[in-house]
Specification:
Elements (H helix, E strand, L loop, with lengths): L1 H29 L2 H5 L1 H24 L6 H6 L6 H6 L5 H22 L5 H25 L23 H30 L4 H32 L10 H26 L3 H23 L13 H25 L14 H33 L7 H21 L10 H6 L2 H17 L7 H23 L6 H10 L2 H25 L2 E7 L4 E4 L2 E12 L3 E12 L2 E6 L2 E6 L2 E6 L1 E5 L2 E10 L5 E9 L2 H18 L2 H5 L7 H14 L1
Antiparallel strand pairs: 1-10, 2-3, 3-4, 4-5, 4-6, 6-7, 8-9, 9-10
Length: 666
């Protein structure tokens, strides 16, 4: 009965979503407070029903109810509990249900905590959010039902893909979806503003916390996926420009641009049309990622290879959402007047440059991702656009972004002095030059492009710290005054400092690990050694071990440096039976200077084993920097201005709110 309860809850959720998508929207148009007020309870009820459905599917997985086709296809009674739970979203149908759950949770959050929004505007936002839910509920119920029965039930299930039986992959999809789907709120706010015909500073203040929350979740999700690829797949890399990796990276780039442009709307009442367009495009890219993963057009370790009929449904929905919202934008955007005028050399100008470069970089990734698909569809020719293309096009576009990231916060609003801003970055310039010279001394034989790359990362970190010191007027006023400034500084400003410093750490980690890694692939017998940079790996042998639902061969390597032992590393080669698959579990030792990475492969038949070793300097800076970026976003999200809400709108909207409130009181 649990499966039937979940299915029935989804049917009821679709009915509620249809009501929420229409009646509150009509109520806002007619000025009917009763119809407007329906949006809030409808969003909460819809969230409750989808939560019941998700809970029913999770219960079926935890109890190994193999009469449910989805459970029988993706679970096994011998799996650990964590992977029974993560198996809920480790497949097409279950991941769609998770997608839907997060969508309605965001809608319920606006309904519950959006009291600072005018009632008519909140009704429009929730109606747009419900329209998206209608599309996905229809998709789930008619093409991807997770509660379909399998009778007679098998004695056991097929099991979950062993690559997904990992803690990193247990948490990576939920955070990624929180980012993907979180941008639906920015989309709903943008479409609601277009329907209303008004975008102003209050709108920007309302939309920023939702956008920032989605950006934080997506950043964390991408970082977790990158870390999983690094330690689980055994190839020693953390990013391969895989099309499905790109599908999550493109909304991140667009969302980053959206965050920065919304600041200009809030502070200067400018870039309104561009910001609304970015909100539409960011969520459209999230939907595009959903299409790429589920349409069957891609072959990837990340993708759900499903039948083309489902891909056609998602493509049709994608076209409706993008075409409909852009048509509304084309009709309503010209009527929204721009705000204040600013000089190209100003903080607004720096943010515009940031947006142009990030948007161009996003377009470059989009082109490299979709061009092979279009070419295959039109001509039948198959080509691969890989890392060389993206490294040569994306990398140069990001260099001016990082340079402007340091200079922009030093410029005043409206009109600034570029030379004066650069002069205020004396410490950052000195730190970058020192890093350049030091790297040149330590790595005098190249690669040459890596040397300014390290200096660029140091420049970004030092500039973030110097901007914070400038804000506190450190060493220019008494320390007590600087402390008072510290206590009065908005958290959003400190969040920016942390996020920018984290970006600098990512740059250093990427450049150092890519440029100076040492790699050794060879066959070793027990007792033999191999030098990897300054380290020596001695093979002590391989022994069989048993896991909870797999068998494995565990290799043991003693690692020494200058004759002193520094670590014992034990990588594994695992064999799963349900379903049958071989996986690699790398052994990683993280130190201050970087990672030592060891992999054991297959035996050669003569007592030797294939092995792979890496010395990856400073690679952990990539994920440390990403976590610092997430911390900066969350710290900014805790700013009191986001909790208190936006200033009240003036004029027509304020009058509408008062009228609706008085009618509701009667």
């Amino acid at each position: 009965m649990t499966a039937e309860l979940g299915h029935y809850a989804l049917v009821l959720a679709l009915s509620v979503a249809l009501v929420q998508a229409t009646i509150p929207l009509l109520g806002a148009w007619r000025g009917d407070p009763g119809w407007v007020g329906l949006a809030r309870p409808a969003a909460l009820v819809q969230c409750f029903l989808v939560t019941v459905a998700f809970g029913a599917l999770m219960y079926a997985y935890v109890t190994s109810d193999f009469s449910v086709l989805n459970v029988a296809s993706n679970s096994h009674s011998a799996k650990p509990l964590l992977y029974k739970i993560s198996g809920v979203w480790g497949n097409h149908e279950g991941s769609l249900l998770l997608w839907l759950l997060i969508l309605v949770l965001f809608g319920a959050a606006v309904a519950a905590f959006g009291g600072n929004l005018p009632a008519p505007f909140r009704a429009r936002v929730l109606a747009v959010q419900a329209m998206i839910a209608v599309g996905f509920l229809t998709f789930v119920l008619f093409t991807s039902n997770p509660f379909e029965r399998l009778l007679p039930a098998p004695l056991d299930g097929n099991g979950l893909n062993p690559l997904l039986q990992d803690p990193g992959l247990a948490f990576h999809p939920p955070f990624l979806y929180l980012g993907y789907v979180g941008f639906s709120m920015a989309f709903s706010f943008a479409v609601a503003a277009l329907i209303e015909g008004r975008v102003d500073a209050a709108w920007a203040r309302w939309v920023r916390p939702w956008t920032l929350a989605a950006w934080c979740f997506l950043t964390l999700g991408i970082a977790l996926g990158s870390w999983w690829a690094y330690y689980e797949l055994g190839w020693g890399g953390w990013w391969f420009w895989d099309p499905v990796e790109n599908a999550s990276f493109m909304p991140w780039l667009a969302g980053t641009a959206l965050l920065h442009s919304s600041i200009v709307v809030e502070k200067r009442d400018s870039l309104k049309n561009w910001t609304v367009l970015l909100a539409i495009l960011t969520f459209s890219l999230s939907l595009l990622g959903t299409f790429l993963v589920r349409s069957g057009v891609l072959t990837s370790v990340h993708a759900f290879a499903t039948d083309p009929a489902r891909g056609v449904f998602i493509l049709a929905f994608l076209i409706v959402v993008i075409a409909g919202s852009l048509t509304l934008y084309a009709v309503r955007a010209p009527a929204m007047k721009g705000g204040g005028i600013f000089s190209p050399v100003s903080r607004e100008g720096g943010l515009v440059l940031n947006n142009l470069l990030l948007s161009t970089a996003c377009a470059t990734v989009l082109l490299g991702t979709l061009y092979p698909l279009f070419l295959d569809a039109v001509t039948g020719d198959k080509i691969t656009v890989g890392p060389p293309f993206f490294n040569m096009t994306f990398g140069p576009l990001m260099v001016p972004v990082f340079i402007a990231m340091a200079v922009g916060p030093m410029l005043p609003w409206k009109r600034g002095d570029l030379l004066g801003a650069v002069q205020r970055l004396k410490f950052a310039i000195a730190a970058a030059v020192a890093a350049l010279l030091l790297t040149l001394v330590l790595a005098y034989d190249g690669p040459w492009l890596a040397i300014p790359g390290i200096a660029l990362g140091v420049w970004v970190i030092a500039a973030a710290l110097e901007e914070a010191a400038h804000r506190l007027r450190l060493f220019r006023v008494p320390i007590a005054e600087s402390m008072r400034r510290l206590m009065r500084s908005p958290r959003a400003a400190w969040g920016t400092t942390f996020a920018h410093a984290g970006a600098g750490m990512v740059i250093i980690g990427v450049v150092a690990s890519s440029s100076w890694q040492v790699e050794k692939l060879q066959v070793l017998r027990q007792g033999e050694s191999v030098a990897v940079g300054a380290y020596e790996f001695k093979f002590e042998g391989a022994t069989p071990v048993a896991g909870p639902n797999y068998g494995a061969v565990r290799g043991t390597f003693r690692v020494s440096r200058n004759g002193a032992e520094v670590a014992v590393m034990q990588p594994e080669s695992r064999s799963y039976q349900d379903p049958p698959m071989e996986t690699t579990e790398a052994a990683i030792r993280t130190g201050w200077g970087g990672d030592l990475y060891a992999v054991i492969g297959d035996p050669t038949g003569d007592g030797s084993w294939s092995t792979r070793f890496y010395n990856k300097p400073m690679i952990h800076w990539i994920w440390t920097g990403a976590l610092l970026m997430v911390f900066g976003g969350l710290f900014s999200l805790s700013d009191r201005r986001h909790r208190v809400g936006a200033p009240a709108r003036r004029g027509r909207m304020a009058k509408t709110v008062k009228t609706a409130a008085s009618m509701a009181g009667k």
